[in-house]
Inverse folding.
């Protein structure tokens, strides 16, 4: 027989610990608040890079020619009347230097490419300004490339000092480093988006020069839509918890079902507490992480409760706390192996990604550790409390096929 761990001796200390953590999260919510992302917070968000232009493109001809960039290379798309709707792809692997890429681009009829940096520099990582049309004309169109750090986050914050409400964060690393700039919207001015874009561009242009400021992406969400998203997200989480409770109530007795739901509510609150105190940006990916952990945690809890039900039927002990200890000890190795295996993949995601995906992975790590803990000490403590006067004779004599615990 496996060694039985006396989990019940730690129920009270860990319940107190969880209570203190959750209360601290509630206090933090009212004092620090949640750092809502653009999905939930009205306002303008721009991702910009400070980088010099690397290549200038012009076009003289009768068709429509546009340019696209990706992590793989640069594409020239020819479309319109009198053309064959052709796409020319120039991959960085085939043209590893700026000089080679420029020479290849010049092979497209009507397109002229001129390097604005040393031709020996690597060609990888070209990007364009999302605020400028990508259709080529006689006017030079710039491809940008960050070869070295041209500005720090402090430089950007100083440049935007005239906009005290602007919040600046770094995004990306190395040659892909950029800055996320957020300016809130209280809904009082319908033209606030255009005004803020103009103010941000003017401030950055004064500090770093007109040709060195590149807008990679712009997002805007209104105050009404933001409030609706927050409200619908709350409904989504509450609805999920209700459905899980109904499922557990049909499968087990009420105390088992309620214990399982309390455990997953505990996990969700622990994750929110972590978000509050780290001021991690709370986005739609954060909601996905919470729901993922809720599903993972209830699965783990149901496995343990199934074992408890089986051990009650087999009469493994006349004391309910001992049955809980036996069941949780028997499931512990399965729980740890499953969780550790899953965590290896999530930790890899955390280590090798950046931005919102990194935050998503970190929140999953916190939630999964909490899920293992809550299955043992939160659900177990609640069920033990409900059945503190339990006796084997309290159970109805039913066959295993119809017994319900």
């Amino acid at each position: 027989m496996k060694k039985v761990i006396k989990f019940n001796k730690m129920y009270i200390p860990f319940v107190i610990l969880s209570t203190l953590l959750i209360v601290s999260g509630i206090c933090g919510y009212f004092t620090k608040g949640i750092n809502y992302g653009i999905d939930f917070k009205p306002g303008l968000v721009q991702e910009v890079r400070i980088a010099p232009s690397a290549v200038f493109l012009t076009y003289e001809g009768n068709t429509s020619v546009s340019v696209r960039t990706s992590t793989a290379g640069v594409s020239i798309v020819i479309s319109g009347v009198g053309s064959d709707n052709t796409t020319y792809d120039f991959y960085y692997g085939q043209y590893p230097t700026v000089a080679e890429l420029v020479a290849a681009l010049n092979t497209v009829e009507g397109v002229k490419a001129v390097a604005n940096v040393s031709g020996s520099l690597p060609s990888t990582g070209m990007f364009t300004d999302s605020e400028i049309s990508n259709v080529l004309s006689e006017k030079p169109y710039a491809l940008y490339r960050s070869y070295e750090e041209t500005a720090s986050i402090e430089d950007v914050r100083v440049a935007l000092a005239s906009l005290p409400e602007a919040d600046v964060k770094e995004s990306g690393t190395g040659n892909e480093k950029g800055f996320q700039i957020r300016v809130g919207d209280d809904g009082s001015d319908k033209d606030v988006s255009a005004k803020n874009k103009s103010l941000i561009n003017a401030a950055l242009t004064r500090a770093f020069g007109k040709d060195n400021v590149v807008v990679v992406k712009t997002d805007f969400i209104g105050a009404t839509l933001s409030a609706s998203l927050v409200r619908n997200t709350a409904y989504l989480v509450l609805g999920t918890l209700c459905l899980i409770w109904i499922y557990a109530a049909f499968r087990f007795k009420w105390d088992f079902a309620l214990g399982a739901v309390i455990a997953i509510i505990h996990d969700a609150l622990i994750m929110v507490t972590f978000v509050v105190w780290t001021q991690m940006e709370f986005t739609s990916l954060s909601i996905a992480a919470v729901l993922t952990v809720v599903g993972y945690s209830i699965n783990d809890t149901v496995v343990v409760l199934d074992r408890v039900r089986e051990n009650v039927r087999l009469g493994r002990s006349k004391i309910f706390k001992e049955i809980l200890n036996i069941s949780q000890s028997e499931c512990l190795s399965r729980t740890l192996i499953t969780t550790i295996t899953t965590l290896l993949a999530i930790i890899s995601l955390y280590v090798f990604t950046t931005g919102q995906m990194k935050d998503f992975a970190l929140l999953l790590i916190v939630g999964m550790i909490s899920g293992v803990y809550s299955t043992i000490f939160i659900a177990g403590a609640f069920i033990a409390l409900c059945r503190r006067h339990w006796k084997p004779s309290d159970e109805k004599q039913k066959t295993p096929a119809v017994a319900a615990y």
Remarks:
- The longest helix spans residues 320-352.
- The CA atoms of residues 31 and 387 lie 39 Å apart.
